[in-house]
Amino acid sequence: MNKSGAEDMWVDGADGGFIDPVSMEEDPVELFAGDAGTLAVDVRRVLVRMLQRRYLLAEKSPGLWRTLLDNQQLVESRMHDMFVRLVIDHDRGVAYKEQVRSVELDVPILLKDEPYSRAETLVLVYLRTIFQQEQVAGEMSARVDIEDLEQTVLTYYDPDDTNLARGQQEIRGAVARLAREGLIEEETAGRYRITPLVEIVLSAEKLNEIKSWLHARNEGSAVAVADSEGAVL
Fold it and tell me: Which of 2, 181, 184, 199 has the smallest C-beta neighbourhood within 10 Å, fewest atoms?
């Protein structure tokens, strides 16, 4: 009989030598009873964060961001197991996820689409336009006041709708949702900084498409949103 079964643990190496088995000390640390996970605790945290939230911002969570970049392949592998794609925009410092969809494969849908309401879409158009204007002007950041935002977005509403309070309430609700999602951040009461997420949520192509629709709908009236060249739409 092999002494303590030790000889059974040696494996022939490619060079004719032997390879030591991995020591118990190198096994993943068990974080809770029955833990079968193989990821380090910091990698697990960034994976959970990516699944919980729509986005991860480098400037807001530098520690998680660095962990994500250092372990990108591991995190991607786990997300791909769930048919979810990881997207990292290094220029904007944004990471987000997308649902994998395929006509060739029956993919279970994990991420549900949450379409924006009319008010949320109109607020997005305003924010994206202002952000684009400031970029063209060479500004590093863009900010908006809630009063200016409300006045502009209300111009998109039906002029025959006399329920101004309802429109304002819808717009405030839209601002609250976009703030929760990280597209804007309230710096002082009623003043918001627009984050780079707005470019990802509403691409330039989609922005122009929506603006064209709004222009056609409001043709003949001045709508107080300017494009990057200063033209009134």
Answer: 2
Q: Is 136 among the domain residues?
A: yes
Distance CA 92, CA 98 (A): 17
- Distance of alpha carbon 153 from alpha carbon 150, whole angstroms: 5
Distance of CA 166 to the CA centre of its chain: 29
Q: Which of residues 113, 137, 160 is at a domain's end?
A: 113
Q: 165: domain CATH number?
A: 1.10.10.2260
User: Mean pLDDT by 10-residue block, N- to C-terminus, for the chain (233 residues)?
Assistant: 46 49 57 92 96 90 97 97 95 92 88 84 93 89 94 85 86 94 92 92 78 67 38 29
Domain that holds residue 83: 36-113
The pLDDT value given to residue 139? 85
Model pTM above 0.90: no
Q: How many CB atoms lie within 10 A of CB 223?
A: 16
User: Cβ neighbours of residue 186 under 8 Å, at least 6 residues apart?
Assistant: 179, 192
d(CA 146, CA 171) in angstroms, rounded, equals 9
Residue 229 lies in a domain: no
DSSP code, position 27:
S
Tokens of 25: 């000390």
In a domain, 2, yes or no: no
Residue 119 has a pLDDT of: 92
